[in-house]
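ok so dumb question maybe but i'm new to this and my supervisor (M.) told me to 'just get the structure for DNA ligase' and walked off. so i did the thing. is this what she meant?? sequence i used:
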Amino acid sequence: MSENIELKIKLLRDELRKHNYNYYVLDNATISDYEFDLKLKELEKLEAENPQFFDPNSPTQRVGGEITKNFTTVIHKNRMYSLANSYSLEDLNDWENRIKKMVDNENISYSCELKYDGASINLVYENGKLLRAETRGDGFQGDDVTANVKTIKSIPLVLHDKFIDSFEIRGEIIMPLKGFYKMNEERIEEGEDPFSNPRNTASGSLKMQDSAEVAKRPLDCLLYQLIAEELPFETHFEALMGAKKVGFKIPETIAVCNTINEVFEFIKYWDTRRNKLPYETDGVVVKVNSLEQQEELGYTAKSPRWAIAYKFKAEQVSTILNEITYQVGRTGAITPVANLEPVQLAGTIVKRASLHNADQIEKLDIRVGDTVFVEKGGEIIPKIVGVDLTKRSLESKPTKYITNCPDCGTKLVRTEGDAKHYCPNEYGCPTQITGRIQHFISRKAMNIDGLGSETVELLFKEGLIHNYADLYELNESQIIPLERMAEKSAQNIIAGIENSKKIPFEKVLFALGIRFVGETVAKKLAKHFKSIDNLMNASFEELVAVDEIGDKIAESVLRFFDNLTNIQIIDRLKNYGVQLIISEDTLKNQTTKLFGKTIVISGVFSHFSRNDLKKSIEDNGGKVASSISKKTNFVIAGENMGPSKRLKAESLKIPIISEKDYINMIS
Ligand SMILES: NC(=O)c1ccc[n+]([C@@H]2O[C@H](COP(=O)([O-])OP(=O)(O)OC[C@H]3O[C@@H](n4cnc5c(N)ncnc54)[C@H](O)[C@@H]3O)[C@@H](O)[C@H]2O)c1
Ligand SMILES: [Zn+2]
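this is what came out, is it supposed to look like this??
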């Protein structure tokens, strides 16, 4: 018997560790938070009943995150904790009873805050300046992500008023919904899969290697705790308001409640209104307001006793699944969509839900006619999380995924490791053809004025264009007779197409619609290879040698240029005068002085910002790496170079040069 329990505990611990890793390190959870919390609760219960199997390393005893190998590790001056959870008013009452006993039945007032859903961050300030930003990691040590955090505009780098000399302030890095939706629209436009939710995206962004990329992500930071050797405040709330005065972003939603009943009111209020906030929240955090009482209460192994999270229930409704339809994307990817009986959810009427791919349908055994549960997380469209099997009719049959393209009838393919089915009829499938042309003319690509998506469809239907090169053969007399067209609009279209011949190479490269080559990648490739001919002749090794170009992108580029139709189209674009070589302007200030050199930078510089220094290295043909290895040619050290980096460079005998040496080197 006890052997069984021991095994059960071990299996649960292993499973939860795996989920922690997926969630915190890979930013890619494979079960819902609800299921995760249930399993954790089950383990807590088993451990409490069987104290002989206690293990300080159990997921019940430890903060779930980890440090990564991509950043300098920092030991937290003050430990970072998780929060105990509660799911009902009863849980909260129990908590109050417990803590009241520990503070001798004194009155307790509470600070109530929303639980912002993102990634925790610790900001270290010395003498009014941001010194370091650290992730929570395992609570004892985290990743030094200062360079990335410095790109978040709402975080003050220098305080505009005198405050405490040395302190830490903690908060949550979040991605507000508006920015999240916009980014996803752009990704879909570029043929990439959209991000799954704002939390993962915020957490993933924080851990990117290139701060210039992080700067493009619309991140924000909401702060919720101040820590110092000695705080000149009596209460947590006053401390936050003090921090607010010197420039920190502290949400307006905080309230002080004098009784637990007032806390309930706060929770009820926000449970129905949180959808109206510009960011996601997943609950309320209730904190003992008096700092003295907080100190008295202290911490358990994993969380403060003076605070508790109340988790909102994910909003869920049930409705009937009327039909499953299939969409074809510009890259041929098929997305199944659930068409639902319209239902009210989180303030909007929901008619459709994403089903992602065939596996998802199979896993949940979703069938037409089913009553399904629909949830709204951070996704653009809601998702189906389960089926109400008690309502399934006896005649119901498992869903058969389509085998052929709903648009052109071609047999679909699915390559190993890819969750999606694709229509391989790249050059014959109408949606793919018009999708590629629509992408080509779009604002961030060739920016062809006067030509819209509908006109592209019309021109295609009339047999006037089959690919984007055909645009350059169009003339006014072909366009004027078309539906809703007149001389003026035809002239505009032709003028817009003519003007697009001036669009610079990096945008043309993006416009070609090579899978995984979005705006940024196109810029990188254009800058590195300088012309389409060089790019076309590049080998896999040459491609992956370019900073931030990985296997997936390299393979996609090779595949694109391996196709005769594409080569012919590019030849035609060349003849029409489209820019397929990088312009003189872009080449200015560029040299090959650092060609083949891998350089690591560390510290703070006076002549360059870190990003400018990176750009300068790249402009001179060098490659910037984030960590020192045998492949590093030299390290440029600024002020306050990280001691671990210095040690590593010295032990590998890698030259360390100053900013001045560098400037001499390139001038
Ligand atoms: N689905 C999965 O596989 C999986 C795996 C691991 C964890 N999880 C989920 O992650 C959560 C557990 O993560 P956790 O241990 O980080 O705990 P938590 O996120 O539930 O609570 C602690 C965190 O809340 C944040 N927070 C937000 N607003 C705050 C405020 N106003 N005051 C104080 N803190 C605030 C802090 O960053 C703090 O670190 C659970 O919801 C769990 O379901 C899911
Ligand atoms: Zn097709």
